[in-house]
Design goal:
By secondary structure, this protein is α+β, with helices and mostly antiparallel strands. The protein has two domains: about 150 residues, 60s Ribosomal Protein L30, Chain: A, CATH 3.30.1330; about 290 residues, Orthogonal Bundle (2-methylcitrate dehydratase PrpD). It has a five-stranded mixed sheet with strand order 5-2-6-7-8. β3 and β4 form a beta hairpin. α11 packs across α17. The longest helix has 24 residues. The protein is globular. The protein starts with a helix and ends with a helix.
């Protein structure tokens, strides 16, 4: 099993990797399939199912699909250009394509939300249809947005493409048990094994520059979030809080008046800054998803800014270790809130961050595995119940608490020798089973939990 660090950490846009980024990628893929088809198409129709239908408006799924059909991608997203494209399509009722000409598409009638049962493959399903001039279907494709910006067709999902990552790598661990065994047998750290796996696919310069770009993008997102004020879009009138908290923390520095637990506020404010940017629809790095994008950068920022003798040279080890843990969770369970609740998003992110921090603080492979397990274990059962379908409440604060748990988990693991009762593999399997047992109203549909108990939403 191999998932690249660049699969786990992808640069994209908010507010959701599965509901915004994924549908945009799927739409662009479908457009390419139309170009390769022998048919002459006159129009396009799209239907959203399951969680994509129930929370699609709040997650900007409709906008993402339209922009994807217009040729946009998360990597090259520009807000002003996108707004212009959306307005033109709404006014003119067609998609422009250099290869396909003008394709009839009315956002009001050709983009449908199906609030019935989800499709069989995954809670996040979309069906795209290419139409002739009479409106009959010439070509149809089903896509699933399976979390973290990953997209598979129905055929790819049924053939297990998400489990097959191509050619073999030097250290092909697909479980934490295998990871620890290989680490001991070959005397390699988790980061070293992950790096050698990456270098079997890409050059050293590509890897180093890519990881540098990931952290720079994360850090810039934190800084943007710490500098912005006002209210987040969507109708809840949620106020941006990160800047105010950050300014207060800066003012208190050196006054010797704040209690030791204020360090928790620093961790939280870094995470909240990221997720306020995500809720605003800004550029984000999946870590492993958008809804949980604040945890990993917050913990890495905490390490660099608040831990004595921290070194930027360890950023690579942090992110490689985190990606290794995230890959195991995705392979053996899920990172999708629509599939397994928020335990799969913030829980996974907290486990990744705990592992990364433990690694750069000198933890052994056994201590790193323990740190990840502690963090994930104490998110088990967490539901995904975004109020009004927006990635704001409880999501923004939840990332702050996920960061705090990650740091605590790393610290606890370093107090031991790595031996512990519950293996990470057992915890991941428990999360998978819990996600299967969790009823749909608690899995990113906004049909239960806080989403239905907050008045005037």
């Amino acid at each position: 099993m191999f998932l690249s660090v660049f699969d786990m950490f992808k640069i994209g846009i908010g507010p959701s990797s599965s509901h915004t980024m994924g549908p945009m990628v799927a739409a662009k893929r479908f457009l390419q399939n139309l170009k390769n088809s022998p048919f002459n198409f006159s129009g396009i129709r799209v239907t959203l199912y399951g969680s994509l239908a129930f929370t699609g408006k709040g997650h900007s799924t409709d906008r993402a699909v339209i922009l994807g059909l217009a040729g946009c991608s998360p990597e090259n997203y520009d807000h002003n250009t996108s707004e212009q494209i959306l307005q033109e399509i709404s006014d003119e009722k067609f998609i422009k394509s250099n290869d396909l000409g003008k394709l009839s598409f009315s956002p009001q009638t050709d983009l449908k939300f199906d609030y019935g049962p989800p499709l069989d493959g995954h809670p996040n399903g979309l069906i795209f249809m290419g139409l002739d001039d009479r409106g009959d279907i010439l070509f149809q494709e089903t896509y699933y947005s399976i979390g973290g910006g990953f997209v598979l067709t129905a055929d790819e999902l049924s053939h297990g493409k998400d489990k097959d990552q191509g050619s073999k790598v030097p250290f092909p661990f697909s479980s934490a048990e295998e990871m620890l065994s290989m680490s001991k047998r070959f005397n390699r750290s988790i980061a070293q094994m992950k790096k050698e796996n990456e270098l079997s696919r890409i050059s050293k310069n590509e890897l180093e520059n890519g990881i540098k770009h990931i952290w720079e993008s994360m850090d810039k997102c934190i800084e943007r979030g710490l500098s912005q004020s006002g209210f987040l879009p969507g109708g809840l009138n949620v106020k941006r809080r990160a800047k105010g908290i950050y300014d207060a923390l800066l003012a208190e520095r050196g006054l010797n008046l704040t209690p030791p637990h204020t360090i928790n506020d620093w961790m939280s404010v870094y995470a909240m800054a990221v997720n306020e940017e995500n809720a605003f629809g800004g550029q984000i790095v999946t870590a492993p998803t958008n809804g949980a994008a604040g945890v990993v950068p917050a913990v890495l920022k905490y390490y660099l800014k608040h831990v004595p003798n921290a070194s930027e040279n360890k950023i690579e080890d942090f992110l490689l270790t985190a990606a290794a843990i995230g890959g195991l969770i995705k392979f053996n369970a899920s990172i999708s809130g629509a599939e397994a609740g928020c335990q799969a998003e913030v829980g996974s992110a907290s486990a990744m961050a705990a592992a990364g921090l433990c690694a750069v603080l000198g933890g052994t492979s056994e201590q790193i595995e323990n740190a990840a397990e502690i963090a994930l274990e104490h998110h088990l059962g967490m539901t995904c119940d975004p109020v009004a379908g927006l990635v704001q409440v409880p999501c923004i604060e939840r990332n702050g608490l996920g960061a705090i748990k990650a740091v605590s988990a790393a610290s606890l693991s370093l107090r031991g020798d790595g031996t512990h009762l519950v293996p990470l593999d057992a915890c991941v399997e428990t999360m998978r089973q819990t996600g299967e047992d969790m009823i749909n109203k608690y899995k990113e549909t906004s049909l239960g939990g806080l989403a239905v108990n907050i008045p005037n939403c």
